[in-house]
């Protein structure tokens, strides 16, 4: 029993080592932008599992377990090799604790109480990409937002923003900023429409989701915001060429742990932002002309 348990622990440890190696490879190979583009397809997966999927099959587009594919009317191609990921399992146990009462006024029943301890364990499991399956076609998603008309996109994002958008004179290379004190977003006058869309999306991410202390953690804040904005932009087919990835990768390259720590926060926030935009688009029945 102990040997089996030790083997499982070793296997999980090996998988986490693969995750760290995967993150290192993504940064050092200059593929961070490619990884973020890849990650938009895996909303329900954690950062760790997206890294594992990317490391094993960088061309994957939609993955699921064997039974899930079966339920969709698809079956695995002969010889398909599974993509290994980790599956978290919540566990708990009860622990007896003794509470010391003031001046020993508690009786014996009150002193002995049970404390519930919750913790996570992991097991390895496998998923398969849609390219490894055959069978019934999957329904196509309806794209209501498209990058071919950035003027309408810009106007939509302005209408979506809960904060005023001010186009003002800004000196230097800064294209825009979020004012936490004034509760408004400023954009530099005379920006191209592409720059307006990219900058507004970036500053909206600051305004809605950035909870870092900017003065203390500027690099963390910008890495987080630029990564979230990139995923959201790419999901909605916006131009993602105007992104500060040289700055981001040069920063996280010196400390891979930063991306390991930010990874899940980036993915969850991007998913939340995408859902918020999709809900707004659907509720208002908005379509951007192409």
List the helices and strands and how they pair.
Blueprint: H1 2-28, H2 32-39, H3 47-56, E1 63-64, H4 66-71, E2 74-76, E3 83-98, H5 108-111, E4 112-129, E5 133-135, H6 150-160, E6 165-168, E7 176-179, E8 184-188, H7 193-209, H8 218-235, H9 245-252, H10 256-283
Parallel strand pairs: 6-8
Antiparallel strand pairs: 1-4, 2-5, 3-4, 7-8
Task: Provide a descriptive summary of the structure in words.
This protein is of the alpha+beta class and 290 residues long. The chain has 3 domains: 2-88 and 125-135, no CATH class; 91-120, no CATH class; 150-283, no CATH class. Helix content is 47%, strand content 19%. It has helices at residues 2-28, 32-39, 47-56, 66-71, 108-111, 150-160, 193-209, 218-235, 245-252, 256-283, and strands spanning 63-64, 74-76, 83-98, 112-129, 133-135, 165-168, 176-179, 184-188. A hairpin with a 4-residue loop joins strand 7 and strand 8. Helix 2 crosses helix 8 (218-235).
Q: Give the uncertain stretches in residue-range form.
A: none
How many whole angstroms does the radius of gyration measure? 24 Å
Overall tally of domains: 3
> Can you count the beta strands?
8
Q: Structural class, please?
A: alpha+beta
Concise structural overview:
The protein is α+β, with helices and mostly antiparallel strands. The protein is 47% helix and 19% strand.
Features of the shown structure:
290 residues
């Amino acid at each position: 029993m102990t040997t089996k348990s030790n083997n499982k622990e070793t296997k999980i440890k090996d998988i986490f080592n693969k995750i760290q190696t995967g993150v290192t490879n993504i940064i050092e190979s200059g593929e961070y932008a490619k990884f973020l583009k890849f990650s938009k397809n895996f909303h329900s997966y954690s950062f760790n599992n997206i890294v594992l999927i990317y490391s094993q099959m960088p061309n994957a587009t939609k993955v699921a377990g064997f039974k899930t594919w079966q339920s969709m009317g698809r079956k695995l191609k002969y010889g398909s090799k599974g993509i290994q990921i980790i599956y978290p399992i919540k566990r708990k146990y009860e622990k007896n604790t003794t509470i010391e009462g003031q001046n020993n006024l508690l009786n014996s029943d009150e002193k002995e109480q049970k404390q519930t301890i919750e913790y996570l364990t992991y097991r390895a499991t496998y998923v398969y990409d849609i390219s490894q399956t055959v069978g019934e076609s999957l329904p196509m998603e309806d794209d209501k937002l498209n990058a071919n008309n950035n003027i309408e996109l810009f106007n939509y994002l302005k209408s979506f923003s809960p904060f005023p958008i001010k186009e003002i004179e800004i000196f230097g290379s800064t294209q825009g900023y979020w004012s936490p004190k004034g509760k408004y977003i400023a954009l530099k006058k005379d920006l191209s429409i592409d720059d307006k869309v990219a900058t507004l999306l970036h500053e909206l991410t600051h305004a809605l989701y950035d909870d870092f202390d900017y003065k203390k953690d500027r690099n963390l804040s910008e890495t987080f915001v630029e990564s979230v904005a990139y995923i959201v932009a790419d999901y909605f087919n916006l131009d993602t060429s105007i992104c500060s990835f040289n700055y981001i990768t040069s920063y996280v390259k010196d400390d891979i742990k930063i991306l390991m720590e930010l990874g899940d926060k980036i993915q969850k926030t991007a998913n939340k932002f995408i859902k918020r935009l999709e809900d707004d688009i659907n509720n208002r029945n908005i379509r951007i002309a192409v």
